[in-house]
């Protein structure tokens, strides 16, 4: 998070709800147990101070720390945990150590979210705020281990079932996160599965257009035995249509090179407008990788591409409430920290493979015009 505090909170308030985006990073130099305690205690204090309930949460860390992190979270979240687990995501250690950080999206000032269950497991939430229904899916993965493309098919079908429980469908999805372990081995297969699934449901047409959610597909797998999992958020309600930016900023449609997602999506959320900027890299308007082998140039190009999409959606960088920076290795992370150390966006930096071997960095962002630091 640059030179900012270990915990950053951005708040947007409306007449019917208050949304909080919390970004927590480990304290530099502390032992992992101390980092975890400080991180989750800080998040818990923020939630209690605002009377807020979690609607989405993800935690990125090395695999051997997951049990310890779960215990630290349970101890700090007494009374806050509704049974929906966070997305536990496995990343290698970075410059800050084996814990990359945690992100929480929470809400206050409206009825508590209802837990959504699939096959008896808590896998999401639905929140009623006025005439709007906000749906969150977390940890959506296959039912049983199988080869990766079959797991992806099962994962997407599970997302569809979860949405139907809330009275919605894939047409109500604004944003997805695709957590794809070993992405470089099977990303082409994943794209074929997703394209076929979206085409069959009417989200993707023969021209490569349609109602394609903003998305991140990144080389970070879920903790446990599965190759992939996904998170999603959707909006249900008349008058709450989602705007999809298929091409935006400096980049053309991702569907032109086989990936079914929009550059960004804008939707009404409980406290106002939210803009979801997809995972963005140093890719030209023709879909070509730029600045091969030059980490600093790719980093600057990537940040510029995100800023361009923000401008196209009526936002600027002061509206960013959460971001994740994905760096291919610690050398790229160092280059990012050296060149973007004053980046004001609340962000986590995670080590991950990007969807192409020659891409070194990817950045995603969520923005809310009118949100303020708290």
Question: Could you please describe the fold and organization of this structure?
Answer:
Helix 1 runs parallel beside helix 2 (66-76), helix 3 packs across helix 4 and helix 5 crosses helix 6. The radius of gyration is 19 Å and the shape is globular. The two termini are 16 Å apart. Helix content is 25%, strand content 33%. With 374 residues, the protein is α+β, with helices and mostly antiparallel strands. The model is unreliable at 1-5 (pLDDT under 50). A hairpin with a 2-residue loop joins strand 7 and strand 8 (132-140). The chain is built from six helices and 19 strands. It has one domain (7-373): 60s Ribosomal Protein L30, Chain: A (2-Layer Sandwich), CATH 3.30.1330.
In short:
Helix content is 25%, strand content 33%. The chain has 374 residues and is α+β, with helices and mostly antiparallel strands.
Question: What tags apply to this protein structure?
Answer:
374 residues; alpha+beta; 60s Ribosomal Protein L30, Chain: A; seven-stranded mixed beta sheet; six-stranded mixed beta sheet; disordered N terminus
Would you spell out the secondary-structure blueprint of this structure?
Elements: E1 7-13, E2 18-24, H1 32-50, E3 53-61, H2 66-76, E4 87-90, E5 99-108, E6 114-118, E7 121-129, E8 132-140, H3 148-165, E9 173-180, H4 183-201, E10 214-218, E11 221-222, E12 228-236, E13 243-245, E14 264-269, E15 272-280, H5 295-312, E16 320-327, H6 330-339, E17 347-351, E18 361-367, E19 372-373
Parallel strand pairs: 3-4, 9-10, 16-17
Antiparallel strand pairs: 1-2, 1-19, 2-5, 3-5, 4-11, 6-7, 7-8, 8-12, 9-12, 13-14, 14-15, 15-18, 16-18
